[in-house]
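Worked example 3 (structure in, sequence out).
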């Protein structure tokens, strides 16, 4: 029942638009600050790794091993991916373009920050992003997805049908 309401209701569409734009501004602001402020994830990563020890670690050992053995040695890559990712998630949510993908990528980053021991606003953003993802296309109807998604569906369907030897208007079965 809730699923259907999120996916089909005009009230949900407008509420999700407000939520989506708000979350988008949170992401774009964070990303822009990192893009223009000389962001370096080294301190964040070493702090998270340090929190894997002790009596009550806030970072689980498996995640800490990932940070220690992959993220930290590749910190230059993360110094690029994190700010650009945050900015693009924000832009996608604000404009309502590839809304579901933007919300999913936001969720991935929120989980990574939570796994790294940073609570902050991550649970709230994550919860709101879940509603956006569940709503699917309805969350981006007041946005560019209103035109982008139908165009892509028509273009991809047309292309896939031609590859199979048919056309979008011709029947795919042979008459007897």
């Amino acid at each position: 029942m809730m699923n259907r309401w999120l996916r089909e209701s005009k009230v949900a569409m407008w509420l999700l638009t407000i939520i989506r734009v708000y979350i988008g501004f949170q992401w774009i602001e964070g990303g822009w600050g990192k893009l223009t402020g000389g962001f370096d994830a080294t301190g964040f990563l070493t702090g998270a790794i340090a929190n894997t020890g002790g009596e009550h670690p806030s970072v689980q050992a498996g995640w800490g091993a990932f940070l220690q053995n992959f993220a930290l040695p590749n910190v230059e890559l993360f110094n690029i991916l994190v700010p650009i990712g945050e900015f693009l998630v924000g832009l996608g949510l604000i404009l309502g373009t590839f809304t579901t993908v933007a919300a999913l990528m936001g969720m991935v980053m929120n989980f990574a920050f939570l796994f790294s021991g940073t609570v902050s606003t991550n649970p709230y953003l994550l919860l709101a992003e879940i509603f956006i993802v569940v709503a699917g296309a309805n969350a981006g109807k007041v946005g560019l997805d209103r035109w982008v998604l139908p165009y892509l569906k028509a273009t991809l369907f047309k292309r896939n049908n031609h590859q199979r030897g048919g056309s979008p208007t011709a029947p795919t079965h042979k008459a007897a």
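Notes: The chain has a mean pLDDT of 90. The two ends are 45 Å apart (CA to CA).
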